[in-house]
Amino acid sequence: MRPIRIALTKGRLEKKSLALFETMGLDCTALREKGRRLILPMYAENDIGDETRIQIEAVLAKAADVITYVRHGVCDFGIVGKDTLAENGAGVYEVLRLPFGVCKFALAGKSGVDFYAGHHERSIATKYPTVARRFFAQKGMDVNIIKIEGSVELAPLLGLSDAIVDIVETGGTLAANGLEVIEDIQSISARVIANVASMKLRHEQMQSLLDDMAASMSVAEF
Ligand code: PRP
């Protein structure tokens, strides 16, 4: 049987995930010294040579692709932000809320401008059209959503949109660009997701790893 595969979101969440795995007692040397490799074995310390030990592989991918690999069952677990899950997370189990990658979705616009004044249709720039559409649908507001790939803060500054729906972590990017939060939408953190079939077919191994992650996340130093 192939190793249990955990897809990790490359970048900030990857480093935090590594800290979690090391707290669990997994040897993450290969992940630390990965170079350009994308599939890295992890070993359970003190357990080398035991044929019953769980073989684990870390797979490095972009956030949305983490969900795709887990949904299709080529990876069993994934670690990904709730932001990406909220946008395109259907078809996987969300099994654990992790204490890192903490931020929020917010509606933001130019400081001092009343977003709700007047009756014209508003334009909203965002990397997260599904999240934005859902938010305004709940308010019963028709808005024009404009999909942007990054540096969304530019859109209201250049006059492309009235506001943005985006991730706010420290608030530094908004402040540096004369923007402010109009309304909080949803809090975000990293999540462990699991493939639906794997959770049934490899239940014992999957549950054991999940229990280890849950026990380690409160003592790990992120
Ligand atoms: C994210 C987000 C904001 C910024 C928020 O962008 O889209 O721009 O971080 O962080 P802050 O509140 O701490 O300033 P990211 O750095 O992922 O780059 P991007 O805009 O190119 O997507």
Unreliable runs: none
Oligomer classification: single chain
CATH architecture annotation of the largest domain: 3-Layer(aba) Sandwich
**Secondary structure tally: strands:** 12
The percent range for helix content is 25-40%
Q: How many alpha or pi helices?
A: 9
Radius of gyration: 20 Å
Number of domains: 2
Comma- or semicolon-separated keywords:
D-Maltodextrin-Binding Protein, domain 2, 7-stranded mixed beta sheet, 5-stranded mixed beta sheet, elongated, alpha/beta, 33% helix, binds 1-O-pyrophosphono-5-O-phosphono-alpha-D-ribofuranose, 222 residues, 31% strand
What does this structure look like?
By secondary structure, the chain is of the alpha/beta class. The strands form two sheets. A seven-stranded mixed β-sheet has the order 2-3-4-1-5-12-6, sandwiched between helices. A five-stranded mixed β-sheet has the order 9-8-10-7-11. The chain starts with a strand and ends in a 5-residue tail after the last helix. 33% of the residues lie in helices and 31% in strands. It contains nine helices and twelve strands. β8, α5 and β9 form a beta-alpha-beta unit. It has two domains: 126 residues, 3-Layer(aba) Sandwich (D-Maltodextrin-Binding Protein, domain 2); 85 residues, 3-Layer(aba) Sandwich (D-Maltodextrin-Binding Protein, domain 2), CATH 3.40.190.
Q: What would you say about this model in short?
A:
The chain has helices at residues 12-23, 29-32, 63-71, 82-88, 129-138, 154-158, 172-176, 196-201, 203-217; strands spanning 4-9, 26-27, 39-44, 56-61, 77-81, 93-97, 103-110, 122-126, 143-147, 163-168, 179-188, 190-194. The chain has 222 residues and is an alpha/beta fold.
